Amino acid sequence: IVQKSYQDSETGPESSVITKVKGITFSEHRVWDVEEYVKPPEGGSVFSIITRIEVTPSQTLGTCPESMRVSNATCDSDVDCVAGQLDMLGNGLRTGRCVPYYQGSAKTCEVSGWCPVEDGASVSQFLGKMAPNFTILIKNSIHYPKFQFSKGNIEHRKDGYLKRCTFDEVSDLYCPIFKLGFIVERAGENFTELAHTGGVIGVIINWDCDLDLSASKCNPKYSFRRLDPKHVPASSGYNFRFAKYYKVNGSATRTLIKAYGIRIDVIVHGQVNQ
């Protein structure tokens, strides 16, 4: 009895996570709001905050030089380019012509696809100047079915508490509103560097509770750490691409965006004993 060997336990609570980001920022050319820099917008447990973009505007379907980053794309004459060849890591179907590159004296094999290709015309924009002040609401509810025990991480108050508070482990434990800069700092990262290269930060919520005690003693504990392998150049950082399509004079046109960002993974775990 002294050792409580009679206790039952349960690990891995059923969990629901809802997130909401707020804040505005600006780049060299425009102002950005949350509808534009958060992907996806549904507010789940995994989402990305875009902090830098490389934009390739006004791409149209046509022919243009292949990227020099593509294997065997450089050439000296048409003989070096096989018509109909398709490189899975390239940008289109090769036409068989060797053409001048976008800048310099180099030549690459011409391709049929969305032109110009990304590295031939992309422009970088940094969105991260105001990003440390973005606020992230992380609403978490957990349930341990064996013991029919449920709890959430938000203070039950009707005085507009959530509109004026931010998270503090001592004074505001049940105000799960975190500044992005706080999360990155607690993960031990440099914000400017992370915003340029992208990366994945884990927000870990741990619910370890003794149900022999009052429910008020069962409290969430938060920790933060970088999840992608920072010191492995081949796999560190985080980026993804998407495009916005429109028509110009009846012709299909798109803006290609390579987005670097801070991906947030909210991970919930815990154990109860009784």
UniProtKB/TrEMBL annotation:
Belongs to the P2X receptor family. It is a multi-pass membrane protein. Its main location: membrane. GO terms for molecular function: ATP binding; extracellularly ATP-gated monoatomic cation channel activity; purinergic nucleotide receptor activity. PANTHER family: P2X PURINOCEPTOR, P2X PURINOCEPTOR 2. It is found in: Cell membrane. Keywords: Cell membrane, Disulfide bond, Glycoprotein, Ion channel, Ion transport, Ligand-gated ion channel, Membrane, Transmembrane, Transmembrane helix, Transport. One of its GO terms (cellular component) is receptor complex. It comes from the Eukaryota. NCBIfam families: P2X. It catalyses: Ca(2+)(in) = Ca(2+)(out). One of its GO terms (biological process) is response to ATP. This is Purinergic receptor. The keyword Transmembrane applies.
